[in-house]
Amino acid sequence: MKKRKLARFAELETFSNVVQPKLDEIIHDNYPLKGKWSSEYFKNQNPLILELGCGKGEYTIGLAEKYPHINFIGIDIKGDRLWKGGKTSIEKGLKNVAFIRLPIENISFVFGENEVSEIWITFPDPQPNKPKTKKRLTSPAFLDRYTQIIKPKGIIHLKTDNAGLFEYTVEVLKERNHSVLFITRDLHSSKMNDDILSIRTYYETIYLKKEIPICYLNFTL
Predict the structure, then answer these.
(1) Strands in the chain per DSSP E
(2) How many structural domains comprise the chain?
């Protein structure tokens, strides 16, 4: 297992669609691609959508296949997971998808103001222990980071199987007067559109087999 992981890390370095910024590249807030991902990385002016905690990149890739005129970037800190997403998107010949290996708390160092059109948060770690709630990707600290990079009225999506995380998010959004546009505590029994229902992550497939309901909401900041 260790040899396979090391081999994947080595191969990850060769993937043209995986970016691994070093801390000293972003720490002074002058990362060269900040504010220029569409124009300089993707070489177009198309909208940019992020998936945070993208894991193996199933959702990022699924969206990129459906919308070839939108740029998609999946972000995760786990290199062995990103290896799968990077390799799959190369094999599929997708030119509108990339991955960044990065702690999500550093997101505002690599994206510029109003650079991002939408954000997807798919099955994040619920951080169930109370002292760790500030690490939840829907905590006030993270919402403040998203405010720095997302366009005005840009939509943020959350999908989770964890009811505790979901209700926490609902309360945070209410307390901060953010606008919830759609909410359901059983996504696959709702009348949501095909984009939300048809693309499933690895974990979502497992939860559905176990008949665990998927919670979903989208909102603006």
Answers:
(1) 18-19, 48-52, 71-76, 97-101, 116-122, 150-160, 179-184, 215-220
(2) 1
The tens digit of pLDDT for each residue in 61-77 reads 999 999 999 999 999 99
In a 10 Å sphere around its CB, with 0-12 CB exposed, 13-18 middle and 19+ buried, how is residue 93 labelled? exposed
Residue 71: C-alpha distances to residues 20, 41, 99, 101 (Å): 18, 10, 11, 17
**pTM strictly above 0.85:** yes
For 46, phi and psi rounded to 5 degrees? -75, 155
The helix/strand/coil state of 212 is coil
Task: Determine how many CB atoms are found less than 10 A away from the CB of residue 10.
Answer: 10
DSSP 32: T
Three-state DSSP class for 197?
A: helix
Helix (H, G, I), strand (E, B) or coil at 49: strand
- According to DSSP, the residues that pair with 179 across neighbouring strands are 220
Kindly state the tokens that stand for 207: 């939860």
CATH number of the domain that residue 117 is part of: 3.40.50.150
Task: Give the domain extent around 6.
Answer: 2-220
- Asked if residues 120 and 51 have their Cβ atoms less than 8 Å apart, the reply is yes
Q: What is the pLDDT of residues 136-173, one digit of tens each?
A: 999 999 999 999 999 999 999 999 999 999 999 999 99
Which positions are annotated as active-site residues?
A: 125
